[in-house]
User: Fold these one by one.
Assistant:
Number 1:
Amino acid sequence: MSTSIATLNGDKRDLSDELTAKLEASLRGSLLRPESEGYDEARRIWNAMIDRRPALIARCAGGADVMRSVRFAAENHLLLAVRGAGHNIAGKGVYDDSFLIDLSRLRSVHVDPQRKIAWVEPGATLGDLDDETMAFGLATPVGINSTTGIAGLTLGGGFGWLSRKYGLTIDDLRSVNVVTAFEFELHDVNTEILSGPVIYPLSEGRQVLQHYRDFARDLPENLNVWAVLRKAPPFPFLPESAHGKEVVILAAAWFGDMESGKQSLKPLDSFGPVLGTGVGPHPFVGWQAAFDPLLTPGSRNYWKSHNFIDLADDLIDVALDYTARLPSDQTEIFFGRVGGAVNRIPVDATAYPHRDAEYVMNVHARWEQPSEDAKCVAWARKYFEATAPYATGGVYVNFVPDGEDPIESAYGPNQDRLVELKRKYDPTNLFRLNQNIRP
Ligand SMILES: Cc1cc2nc3c(=O)[nH]c(=O)nc-3n(C[C@H](O)[C@H](O)[C@H](O)COP(=O)(O)OP(=O)(O)OC[C@H]3O[C@@H](n4cnc5c(N)ncnc54)[C@H](O)[C@@H]3O)c2cc1C
């Protein structure tokens, strides 16, 4: 018997059992074939739209396994996929017929509280990182769902609640061990923060979002407030009659002392008649996972994204119009506030070039049944097109759906330098199953 596997040339070859057995014997982790126990678990990713079957999966148990697996892929010219926590919306971590290097079991995080540095393995989730660093009242800016992977997040940029104060995840990345651990700078962050949502009915959306925009223009960097348009979850602090109705959620997180936070957040519930508010002291780690229940793995997802410098009145109207006809109960529109420390970094200092964006809009179309694919995808695409006139033209590489490789809009003026680096370090494009920069 042999293993039929895709190659870098676009065709397939048969790997002899002797060859795969030799690789298997060299690994501390395991080598999974389609018939192996654990194969389905190892190939399953966050977005249920994507269901791919690699030919072989190397479940690495450490750096040596990764080195041996990369060498094996290169020597045999195999189509190579690399998977961290598997959250990529386009499913870039898993490919049909490929050789998959699965890093998802490498989740250790080591913190040096004196030097404020964390060494993070590439399968760690944001929750793993927060859990370890918060034991010392430290954190680094990452995304807003605790189940997202640190590796893919960092490779694309990485922004979340702390970004206005401390920048992108990539801005705090100090070094990368090219086979395994990422080394991050840490910042003092209170283990308990003032945070939570203030919720308004959609009927008040126009004035609420206009007030939000004006308020957010001068936001102190200790504060982040995002606007989320969706159907209301059954929050205990909302009247039952509001559950499932379209709402505008202003989600706030304050990184400073509680009393000043209360003053700073005060205006947020004066933009109209509030339906309910969940603002209060919360554990930082809990807030970092607050959106997890809305973005659980296993649903079908199609995401689109734009960057904005400001929220124009017409853009607000389009967003409200599309929110009034959401294609599914789980679909939502996020306006994530960035700026602050993120935008003080020069455009050419890192691969991430969008240092002008004050908002990243993410359109999360989410649903359960394949029969709803066409309706939900069409809604997201139309909304994306309708909002394009107000956008910068740049796109955050981590929010690009499957089948699209907008390298120019993702990397802008940094593209040429990235091509040069790619030519130097990966001239055969062994690492191509990503938003690919071709050598
Ligand atoms: C629910 C949800 C919430 C999100 N929220 C945010 C947010 O708040 N802020 C934000 O910035 N982004 C956010 N994202 C986007 C997220 O950053 C990307 O989806 C990211 O790609 C996930 O990384 P991962 O390691 O889990 O993904 P994977 O699917 O495992 O990998 C993603 C890509 O990175 C490559 N890769 C992974 N590890 C390595 C490695 N060690 N070496 C080389 N290549 C590697 C893979 O080959 C693949 O191309 C969110 C995504 C989801 C699904």
Number 2:
Amino acid sequence: MDSPYLQRRYLVSFESRRLPHIFADVVVIGAGAAGLRAAIEAAPYGQVILMTKGRLQDSNTYYAQGGLAAAIAREDSAESHVNDTLSAAAGLGDEAVIRHVIARAPRHIEQMRQWGVSFDTKGGELSLGREGGHSAHRIVHAQGDATGRALSEVLIERAKGTANLKIFEQCFVLDLVTDPPGGGPGSVCAGVLTYHHRYGLQMIRARQTILAAGGAGMLWRETSNPPNATADAIALAFRAGVVLADLEMMQFHPTTLYVAGATRSLISEAVRGEGAYLVDRTGCRFMGDYHEMGELAPRDVVSRAILNRMGKTGSTHVLLDVRHIGAKAFADRFPQIDQQCRRFGIDPGKDLIPVHPAAHYMIGGATIDIDGHTSLANLLACGEASCTGLHGANRLASNSLTEALVYGERCGKVAGEALAAVNDKLTARQIDWAVAPSDRTELDLVDIRNSLRSILWRNVGIVRRGERLTETLEIVNFWGRYVLDKEFFDPAGWEIQNMLTAAYAITECAMRRTETRGVHYREDFPITDPAWARHQRVRRTEHRLVVE
Ligand SMILES: Cc1cc2nc3c(=O)[nH]c(=O)nc-3n(C[C@H](O)[C@H](O)[C@H](O)COP(=O)(O)OP(=O)(O)OC[C@H]3O[C@@H](n4cnc5c(N)ncnc54)[C@H](O)[C@@H]3O)c2cc1C
């Protein structure tokens, strides 16, 4: 039987002539670093609308702690940053892209500084942190561990003050609209279908659309991501037939605060960069047994080592020892983490901090070229929604905010310039779609959401096995038959449809990659296979999954 995820093109039925229309030159989906930077860059060229499904602060960007990577220090070099990125990428990094991003990183940091981000300094120079996999101090940060908030606030203010740029908050993008509506060869992106609780469904027609809708952490039970990271970008692109790559590459962060019942807030890698140790429940410091870089080994190594140690010691977590850093020094350098620990009665100056790995960063996404073009005409993508090849099979810490700025700027410019070059007039040409009614039972959506997150954590998590992946696919397809055949009328239902769709595509990719590479660890194929030193690309065609 066909997978239910291959049949669905749009989440709801619509007749465009009955919908309110808004016309824009450029539509940007997402208000993280990538979307905001893109929108600011595109605005001088035409009317831009930037939309976000929540508030402007509800993004992965806002929660970023460690900082932005750039080879700025005198004793550092772009070449060394390139080598570290390539080495973490485990044979899948695209060297041209890596050089492209790293060469531009210092300029973007300087630009953010000029726009008003107060990066931390020491002796009048930028204070540079160190994180796992980096061979030098090169992480620029702000307000200690509140880099994301500082960056977001500056970009949001700048976007609000930019002429030609309108911001729609609480505006949920259901689907990319293509002309013709069914997609397929020769189709173009014509804008988006949106929902706002006050205005209902709307059709926003645009000459250029930029997908910057972020990551997918909420697919896993344990995640560092905020609640709105529900993989909408992957699902929107998948339904529209856009080519996606490297979806099996989900990076797990080794250390999120583990307090039963509490959300998993991140304990930045920079804490280990400042000298924190990982110890097991018996107090034994163990990372030296797993990697010569110890606590600063690449994230996949540390995450697996922690899981292994938890198994060996029969514990639900391991512990981070920061006591030797000193209570005051720790609170000064990591004020947010310090407060978060204290909220749960943990005094970092005296107590060990319980930590556990969690889903953190989606490496895969819509495949783009160096200018941000996706496989669908008039659609660009940037940030976590995209797959540039920078991270390969494993992201080096703090390279993603840098990437979001570099590609955000590029997409905004490319979209803007395309307006002048392409003389296509925006029309309200009729675009309709009908979803066939379903008489199948409706499942409990909250239950499905929780079960989906649990099964992905267990079976498509840090350690994977073929039969578990097959079983997961069967279950996800089963749920899909009851959830993807329905039409929902609010974001809660659409988010679950998106999560299931993305889970299907991710599990398919994880099952097909029969090797271990970077963040993708297959217990049944523990060796890296040179024949697999390639990206895995997927796309939906009418009723078929194409995997190349
Ligand atoms: C806790 C944490 C710490 C991190 N620390 C670092 C760090 O120190 N350094 C680093 O480089 N990276 C870090 N990362 C990763 C980094 O923050 C992200 O990769 C980056 O911010 C992604 O930016 P983005 O603009 O692509 O997406 P996001 O910032 O996630 O923004 C996505 C936007 O899309 C919107 N959206 C999603 N779906 C829809 C929809 N259907 N309709 C409308 N809008 C939608 C969201 O509301 C949001 O506005 C961290 C991530 C987390 C979670």
